[in-house]
Design brief:
The chain contains 2 helices and 4 strands; from the N terminus they run αββαββ. With 83 residues, it is an alpha+beta fold. It has a 4-stranded antiparallel beta sheet. It is globular, with a radius of gyration of 12 Å.
Length: 83
Amino acid sequence: MRVAEEGVSNALRHGLAAQIDVVLHVAPDEVRLSVRDDGIGVDPAAALSGLGRLTDRLEGLGGRLVLTPMEPGAELVARVPRG
């Protein structure tokens, strides 16, 4: 999934993460992918062009993409309905 690639890349490149956890959960009604890191977090002023394109693609499939600042780091979660 392109979301995993983008999430890991951003965590390394922008978040300077030392640890990244990627979890894929497949449920009867949706697929959920989470990329969580221990990096420096998310700069709200940063241009999120790569994530913007992914958001558009997921919304076109009826899904959504959410980037949440954590302490430490950030979590990127993608949800897409199954079916």
